Amino acid sequence: METRELICIGCPMGCQLTIEMNDTEVVSVAGNTCPRGETYAKKEVTNPTRIVTSTVRVEGGEMDMVSVKTREDIPKGKIFDCVHALKNVTVAAPVNIGDVVLRNAAGTGVDIVATRNVGVPNQHGN
Amino acid sequence: MKAYDIMSASETPCLHEWRTANGDHDSCKAASSTESANHDIMSASETPCLHEWRTANGDHDSCEAASSTESANHDIMSASETPCLHEWRTANGDHDSCKAASSTESANYDIVIIGGGPAGLAAAVSAKKNGCESILILERDRELGGILNQCIHNGFGLHTFKEELTGPEYAARFIEQARELGIEYKLNTMVMDISHEKTVTAMNRTDGLFEIQAKAVILAMGCRERSRGALNIPGYRPAGIFSAGTAQRLVNMEGYLPGRKVVILGSGDIGLIMARRMTFEGAKVQVVAELMPFSGGLKRNIVQCLDDYDIPLKLSHTVVDIRGRERVEGVTIAQVDPHGKPIAGTEEEYECDTLLLSCGLIPENELSSGMGIDMNPVTSGPNVNESLETNIEGVFACGNVLHVHDLVDFVSEEATAAGKNAAQYVQTESDRNACAAEKAETNQRNASEQITLNPIDGVRYTVPHTIRIDRMSDTLTVRFRVGNVYKNCYVSAYFNDERVIHKKRPVMAPGEMEDIKLSREKLESFPNLKTITIKVEEA
């Protein structure tokens, strides 16, 4: 039996989780104060995932950069593949929250979407 | 709505000319009140210029469109509209629309909110929903949303929206609400002064210097980062030393990478977030040094921003030297003793071109102290009562200007309360003015006794600082921070000398805000309640 210690990141509480594992199987989770802790612990020790946030360049916008995120969480091991895939991506203004910036980022099956609006210069009401 | 900020001081002289010419004093009462506020600050040169333009232009059709927009949407108003409007109005003899226009020009608002970040937005939305129709937000940046716009990482809104949003998305939700509610705002506008009588002096490039009279003011200016100068780090002063928030803005909004080999001093949340962000952008973050024996940041940020990328966090360490004349070439980090003094012989050299500072946030209260608000030395924010009202009646504070928060969700919650309280204050004031009998009653209520909150034994401060039971809501959230890391301890509240609340907390840390809830019923039923002492007690 193997024991792993984690800090839950489901909320600011930051519960100290103790996970007992039998090989790759989770036997028990302790220390959590809500069901999210257990879900997080099981996932983190078997298939850890993250939402990745970054920025890409905007052409013809009132700002040069637009912030983006993976629409859902992606495998932790794919974070840098995603970041690299965004390196040469440029989008044209106007950009709206939720617009797809990159489809199926780094083969994760997850799209990368804009998280802010960028209007074109002098166009009011953005 | 956005067009509001192009309303300029040059409007008034034209109106003035028109009025003089027409002798129509009744329909322009509101306008003249604006004028009295603005007249002194106008330069003589403006009037003829605008006048000339107007004569030359004579474009009445487009003016008509503008003026109808104006009456529908109060805040669209530009220098060009007013003179045209006047001509159009005169031509049509339509005095009703004139009224609408003149009320727009009024420099009187029920509530003026200083700052359009998360606190200001939530306060505005709440004030409007609680019946206040006349609200103006003054924002110094080019857009609403405040610091959220540069916080592109996720983790916002778990409490408020029950989903995980990025900063810009969280801001956009509130901006959208404010827009739907038709809340007025001015961007690129710097508030210079607020008088004790709630006259707000502000300036921007289109209006020049102007004054606005408010019935209530909500302070929502946020906070700023502690700078190198305030930290007294020895060494040279080369380029390459940034506060973490400056670096965040450069990377996330302006598209610049401040450097490639980075050392971070301080483990505040922005520093932790920037450790990950700089790593994504190809920089090598070598170490995060923290003076205290614990991190000032949230747990999840330590896990997801440092641990995930194998960035070491050195607790009880600080920067003792910065090298490089033109650009940072390296820093020296040393361990510190329990008093924070560097221990000789523990120095380590780090080669780097960038040093980021994430060493705490300071509420931005120059305006508050300038108007004579009673400040709390621990929070560096105003002392407030249960209504989040300062010692100056009708002046409220919320968000990071009041005390630095860990989560924006709590800022929104607090600001919502402040907005509601300000709206109620404005309502009560107008009722009071309308009815003298009630005035006496309110005065009596003003004299009602205050309960003082007394933070001791590990509790550094509380917000609010005083409570008037008759004004408190059914449940009042008292927020505070602790001064150290406590495990398996209790938070206790003593009513006078009697322990009434005794709540177990598995872990408390200075980086995370704590709260306890006080019920009005309990406070009312306690005889002769003078002081509520809040403290940490060992198990």
TrEMBL record, chain A:
InterPro entries: CPE0013-like_sf, DUF1667. This is CxxC motif-containing protein. It comes from Hespellia stercorisuis DSM 15480.
From TrEMBL, chain B:
Residues 109-416 form the FAD/NAD(P)-binding domain. GO terms for molecular function: oxidoreductase activity. Keywords: Oxidoreductase. The keyword Oxidoreductase applies. Pfam families: Pyr_redox_2 (PF07992). It comes from the Bacteria. Gene3D superfamilies: FAD/NAD(P)-binding domain. PANTHER family: ANAEROBIC GLYCEROL-3-PHOSPHATE DEHYDROGENASE SUBUNIT B (PTHR42949:SF3). This is Thioredoxin reductase.
